[in-house]
Amino acid sequence: MSLEGSSGEPGFGPCGSPYGPPCDHERVFELADGGLEPEEAREVRRHVELCSPCRDLYEREVHLNSYLRSDDFSGGRMVSCSVHRGVAMALPTRSPVARLLWAALAGALLLLALAYLELNDTEPVMLAMSMLAACWGLVSGSADVVRAVLAAAGPTILLVLALGALADLLIALVFVSASRGRRRAREA
Q: pLDDT-based confidence at 90, cuts 50/70/90?
């Protein structure tokens, strides 16, 4: 591993740490998540102790991790935790012009495919209509099957749902009465 940072000076990372390996934010994130081997974790910890930008990054990540693990998102307000730059840069951010160019390319490919089918006497409109008819037949046939099954099993399903609702009601009543009993016992 080279100790040469982005400035070309040996031993200085992009953050300006005069000690240890160059700043590697991915390893700082892995340290905060507990994903490093003990020796590598010790090495990154030494760097974080001496490099204030990496230490700040580590502390923010540890704070963010503990906040996310706490399951308490309604309470306090987070102190400016941000997403790692690499994650933010990986998000899809195409410009509208690029999107329009991709749409134009897709349209051109569709027209090219239609022209190819027409030149080979496939009649693309008839092909599309027959495919749609086959899909509609599958959907309407499936609907008929579901309708027949529900008509046959309808009373049984209704009975099972009613029994389930009664069981839920009984469980709720037991829970409410037990809660009231505990509350009265605490008040007494």
A: low
Nearest Cα residue to 5 out of 46, 35, 47? 47
pLDDT band at 1 (very low <50, low <70, confident <90, very high): very low
Q: What share of the chain is helix, strand, coil (3-state, %, to 5)?
A: 70, 0, 30
78 phi and psi angles, rounded to 5 deg: -75, 145
- Average pLDDT of every residue of the chain: 79
Separation CA 98–CA 104 (nearest Å): 10
Please tell me whether residues 179 and 161 are part of one structural domain: yes
179 & 102 share domain: yes
Domain total in the chain: 2
State which of 42, 66, 90 marks the end of a domain. Answer: 90
What CA dihedral angle connects 173, 178, 181 and 182, to 10 degrees?
A: -140
First to last CA, the chain: 69
**pTM exceeding the 0.85 threshold for the entire prediction:** no
CA pseudo-torsion sign 175, 180, 181, 187: positive
Give pLDDT, residue 88: 59
